[in-house]
Amino acid sequence: MTVQIKYCGCQSEEDYKLLIETKADLIGFIFAESRREVDPKNVNSWIEKYGKPKKLVGVFQNATLQKIKDVMNTVPIDIIQCHGTESIHQLKEIRNHCNKEIYKALPFGENIIEDITAYGKVSDAIIIDSVSQGRFGGTGIPFSWKEVPNMMKTAERLGILCFIAGGIKPENVSELLRQHPHGIDLSGGIEENGKKNVQKIETLERMIMS
Ligand SMILES: O=C(O)c1ccccc1NCC(=O)[C@H](O)[C@H](O)COP(=O)(O)O
């Protein structure tokens, strides 16, 4: 199985023009409070100019259904990524009202296998991410990857994909790939001075393909 690549936190037309030419299977936009938050109207103008990626992900954090619907009215997202403390009930509501794939981000911790088992029943994929100083996403910090094979097995039993996020970069991606994640999700590790960087992406993709 080839690893799926998700590049997240696309912030500008320049970022988008670069990311659309990469090997990414998914490109993510942050519609939550973050230095990477984007305006849906801008995102749509970039898509109209440069085309749509294989899959477009909208990242939300404890958003109301109305907020998600408002974004969907402007941006043709394929996947709703819930990156906060959304409950299983809320995920079901989002699925019923939005009719899109749902990816749930879960913070890595000692109950991660139980969490994947519970949330995996109402999600199309799970993203395991680091938590740091109250931040749930875009931390730039990796967690211990020893548990990755167990997480993959748990997801496979549920028939879903499991992505790994948090501090992945060209320098450490080979170590992670040895644990055979279904997908990897990167943001800060492919940036230089807050912008997506072509050299970092090319180096990363060479490491993945080798
Ligand atoms: O990236 C953010 O700023 C962010 C803010 C709020 C919620 C989610 C966010 N990012 C979600 C992602 O999918 C990131 O790719 C993931 O957290 C990994 O980020 P990094 O550690 O910088 O590679």
What does this 3D model show about the protein?
GO terms for molecular function: phosphoribosylanthranilate isomerase activity. Its EC number is 5.3.1.24. It comes from Fictibacillus phosphorivorans. The chain is of the alpha/beta class. The chain is built from 8 helices and 10 strands. Helix 5 packs parallel to helix 6. The chain is globular and about 40 Å long. The site of the ligand O=C(O)c1ccccc1NCC(=O)[C@H](O)[C@H](O)COP(=O)(O)O has 25 residues, from strand 2 and strand 8.
Annotation keywords:
single chain, two-stranded antiparallel ribbon, 21% strand, TIM Barrel, eight-stranded parallel barrel, binds ligand LARABZUK, alpha/beta, 210 residues
- Ligand names: ligand LARABZUK
For the terminal residues, how far apart are their CA atoms? 15 Å
Secondary-structure element series: EHEHEHEHEHEHEHEEEH
Query: What's the architecture in CATH terms?
Result: Alpha-Beta Barrel
Class based on secondary structure composition and strand pairing:
alpha/beta
Low-pLDDT windows of residues: none
Under CATH at level 1, the class stands as Alpha Beta
Radius of gyration: 16 Å
Spell out the CATH superfamily.
Aldolase class I
Number of helices: 8
Counting structural domains, the number is 1
What's the main sheet like?
A: 8 strands, parallel, barrel
The pLDDT mean sits at 96
Query: Which topology does CATH recognise?
Result: TIM Barrel
Approximately how much beta-strand content do the residues carry? 15-25%
- Which strand order do you get reading across the main beta sheet? 1-2-3-4-5-6-7-8
Q: Helical percent range?
A: 25-40%
